[in-house]
RNA sequence: GCCCCGUUCGUCUAGCGGCCUAGGACACAUGCUUUUCAGGCAUGGAAUCGCCGGUUCGAAUCCGGCACGGGGUACCA
C-alpha cells in the first residue's frame, strides 16, 4: 500500500486562515497521522486579483498556532517543490498542452462580453448557462494561427454523452450527467490555471492519495475525474466532508459568524479547545464523551464515520468547552498563557496569585481583564453609590487597620463579625466593601483578593471611597 | 431554472429492523451550595426521528415520491 499523503490547499485571499479551513486541515491532519502518512500544505494562489498581501504568512502561522504541522509546504519545501501554484505555471501550461494534443481540450477565443451574452441568452431560453462550445469547432490550422495574436483560454472538452461517476468515502456513489457539465476553463488568458486544472495536476504530481475536502467541491469533482481520465492517471480516494454553517444554516461566512483564526486567538480561545470543538462537528466519540485530546481523536476517528450534514457553528458550546480546558490547565501554565495573552503587560507574579481565583470564572482568556483589572489599577468609578455608606467604610478601615495577620481568613472573620454586629446582611455588607475596594460588583472572592492586594492598598482604597 | 448533497430536541449529536414510551452534551429554567460572579451538585422542560406512501410480525433505522434546507452553476477558490 502506498504511503498516505493528504493536503490542504488554502488560497491566500482572506485576511487569515478561515475556520472552515482549520476544520478541513484538522480532518486531513488527523487522517494522515493515524495512517502514518505525510501532510502537505499547498498554496493555491492562482487568482491574482483576489490575493491578499500577507495572507499566506498568516495562514501558515495560524496553522502553527493550532499545532497542525505539515511535512511539506511553501515555507519548508519538500520533494515536490515548489508548493505555491504561482511558481508552477509552466507545469500547468504543459499539461494543458497535452490535453490539447490528445483532443481533450481546446482553445477558446470568446471574450468575457461574449460569454456574458451567451449566458444571458441561455438562461432566457431556459437552458443551463453553460458554455455553448462554439470554439470547439475551430479548425486546427485556424487556432494555431490565432493563438499567436489573440487572447485565448483553454477549455476542457467535456464528453457530450454519458455520465461521470465517482465514489465518495463519506457519501457513496455520486454521479453527474456529462451534458450538464460545463466546458470548464482550464488555463486563463493570463496564463494562470484555474483551480480545476491546477488541483488535478498538483495532486497527481505531489502523489496525493486522499482528497479530503468540504462538500462545496462536489459539483466540480466530475470535471476533475474527467481530467484524471484524460491524463491517464489513477484517481485518488475522495471524501467530501460537511461545510460548516452559520447559525441560520447558510455556509459559514464572515458576515454572520467570526471566521478568522486570528479572531479566536485574540478572544483568548485555546487552540486545543477549538480543535476539540471542531472534532465534534460531524463526528462523535464512540464513548459519547465531548472532551478529548487530539491524540484521542487520532486514535478513534474514522473518515467514513464523518457525517455529511453541515453543522451549525455554535459559539456558546465552544465557549463552554474552552472554559473546561481552562479549568483543566495547570495554574502555572494558565498564568503564562494569560500573561502572554496580555502582551506581558501585567506583573507576572500578580497574575500568578490571581489565577487560582479566576480559573473557574473565565471561559476565554479575555474574560480575565474585566474581572481582575482592579488588581492592577485603582478603581476610578464605583458601580454602586457609596455615599450612603461612608461611616460604615470608615469603621471598616479602622478595624482592618488594626489587623496584624493580613490573611484572607482573618479578614473574612473580622468583617463577618462586624456585619453581624451591625445587623447588616452579608450580601449587602460585602457588596459595599467589594465595590469600595474594587469598584466592581463582579469580582473574584473578596477576602482572597484583599489579601493579594495587601493591607496598604486596601486601606487606602477604602479610605478613598469613604471620602 | 438546472445539477448535486442532505433532513433525529433551539444547537452539536447517539442510534445501523425489535434493547427507543429516542440517549448524551451545549443552551435554557428551577433548586441547593453562597459574600458578588462563576464553578459544583440536583431536578426539569425540550425531537410523534420533515411529510406521505410502501416493505416487514415489527421502521428513526430499508425503498419510493414530495416538501424543506444547503452547496454548485465564473477566465473565484
UniProtKB/TrEMBL annotation:
Q: Which residues belong to any copy of the Glutamyl/glutaminyl-tRNA synthetase class Ib catalytic domain? A: 3-320
What are the entry keywords? Aminoacyl-tRNA synthetase, ATP-binding, Cytoplasm, Ligase, Nucleotide-binding, Protein biosynthesis
The top EC class, named as a word, is: ligase
Please report, in chain numbering, the residue ranges of the motif 'KMSKS' region.
251-255
Q: Which positions are annotated as binding ATP? A: 254
Q: Write down the chemical reaction(s) this protein catalyses.
A: tRNA(Glu) + L-glutamate + ATP = L-glutamyl-tRNA(Glu) + AMP + diphosphate
- The UniProt record lists the Aminoacyl-tRNA synthetase class I anticodon-binding domain at 342-465
What InterPro entries does this protein map onto? aa-tRNA-synth_I_cd-bd, aa-tRNA-synth_I_codon-bd_sub2, aa-tRNA-synth_I_CS, aa_tRNA-synth_I_cd-bd_sf, Glu-tRNA-ligase_bac/mito, Glu/Gln-tRNA-synth, Glu/Gln-tRNA-synth_Ib_cat-dom, GluQ/Sye
Alphabetically, which GO biological process terms does the record hold? glutamyl-tRNA aminoacylation
Q: What is its EC number?
A: 6.1.1.17
Location of the protein in the cell: Cytoplasm
User: Could you name the Gene Ontology cellular component terms for this entry?
Assistant: cytosol
GO MF term set: ATP binding; glutamate-tRNA ligase activity; tRNA binding; zinc ion binding
How does this polypeptide assemble, per the annotation?
A: Monomer.
* Function description: Catalyzes the attachment of glutamate to tRNA(Glu) in a two-step reaction: glutamate is first activated by ATP to form Glu-AMP and then transferred to the acceptor end of tRNA(Glu).
- Give the UniProt family note: Belongs to the class-I aminoacyl-tRNA synthetase family. Glutamate--tRNA ligase type 1 subfamily.
The protein in question is named Glutamate--tRNA ligase
Gene that produces this protein: gltX
Amino acid at each position: 500500500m502506498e504511503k498516505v499523503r493528504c493536503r490542504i490547499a488554502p488560497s491566500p485571499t482572506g485576511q487569515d486562515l478561515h475556520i472552515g479551513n482549520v476544520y478541513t486541515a484538522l480532518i486531513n491532519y488527523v487522517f494522515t497521522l493515524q495512517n502514518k502518512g505525510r501532510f502537505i500544505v499547498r498554496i493555491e494562489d492562482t487568482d491574482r486579483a483576489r490575493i491578499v498581501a500577507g495572507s499566506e504568512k498568516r495562514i501558515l502561522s495560524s496553522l502553527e498556532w493550532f499545532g497542525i504541522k505539515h511535512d511539506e509546504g511553501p515555507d519548508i519545501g519538500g520533494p515536490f517543490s515548489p508548493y505555491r501554484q504561482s511558481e508552477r505555471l509552466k507545469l500547468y501550461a504543459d499539461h494543458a498542452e497535452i490535453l490539447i494534443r490528445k483532443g481533450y481540450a481546446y482553445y477558446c477565443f470568446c471574450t468575457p462580453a461574449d460569454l456574458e451574452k451567451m449566458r444571458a441568452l441561455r438562461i432566457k431560453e431556459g437552458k443551463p448557462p453553460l458554455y455553448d462550445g462554439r470554439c470547439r469547432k475551430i479548425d486546427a490550422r485556424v487556432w494555431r494561427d490565432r493563438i499567436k495574436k489573440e487572447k485565448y483560454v483553454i477549455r476542457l472538452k467535456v464528453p457530450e454523452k454519458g455520465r461521470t461517476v465517482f465514489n465518495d468515502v463519506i457519501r457513496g456513489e455520486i454521479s453527474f450527467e456529462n451534458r450538464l457539465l460545463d466546458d470548464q476553463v482550464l488555463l486563463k488568458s493570463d496564463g494562470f490555471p484555474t483551480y480545476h486544472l491546477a488541483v488535478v495536476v498538483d495532486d497527481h504530481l505531489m502523489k496525493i492519495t486522499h482528497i479530503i475536502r468540504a462538500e462545496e467541491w462536489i459539483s466540480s469533482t466530475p470535471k476533475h475525474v474527467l481530467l484524471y481520465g484524460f491524463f491517464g492517471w489513477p484517481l485518488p480516494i475522495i471524501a467530501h466532508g460537511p461545510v460548516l454553517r452559520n447559525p441560520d444554516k447558510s455556509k459559514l461566512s464572515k458576515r454572520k459568524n467570526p471566521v478568522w483564526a486570528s479572531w479566536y486567538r485574540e478572544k483568548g480561545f485555546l487552540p486545543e479547545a477549538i480543535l476539540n470543538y471542531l472534532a465534534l462537528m460531524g463526528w462523535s466519540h464512540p464513548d459519547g464523551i465531548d472532551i478529548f485530546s487530539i491524540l484521542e481523536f487520532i486514535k478513534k476517528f474514522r473518515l467514513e464515520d464523518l457525517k455529511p450534514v453541515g453543522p451549525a457553528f455554535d459559539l456558546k458550546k465552544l465557549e463552554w468547552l474552552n472554559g473546561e480546558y481552562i479549568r483543566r490547565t495547570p495554574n502555572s501554565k494558565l498564568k503564562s498563557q494569560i500573561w502572554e495573552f496580555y502582551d506581558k503587560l501585567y506583573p507576572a507574579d500578580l497574575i500568578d496569585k490571581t489565577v487560582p481565583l479566576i480559573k473557574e470564572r473565565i471561559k476565554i482568556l479575555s474574560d480575565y481583564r474585566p474581572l481582575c483589572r482592579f488588581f492592577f489599577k485603582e478603581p476610578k468609578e464605583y458601580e454602586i453609590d457609596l455615599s450612603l455608606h461612608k461611616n460604615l467604610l470608615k469603621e471598616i478601615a479602622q478595624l482592618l487597620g488594626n489587623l496584624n495577620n493580613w490573611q484572607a481568613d482573618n479578614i473574612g472573620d473580622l468583617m463577618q463579625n462586624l456585619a453581624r454586629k451591625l445587623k447588616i446582611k452579608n450580601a449587602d455588607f460585602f457588596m459595599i466593601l467589594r465595590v469600595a475596594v474594587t469598584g466592581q460588583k463582579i469580582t473574584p472572592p473578596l477576602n482572597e483578593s484583599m489579601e493579594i492586594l495587601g493591607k496598604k492598598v486596601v486601606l487606602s482604597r477604602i479610605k478613598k471611597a469613604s471620602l
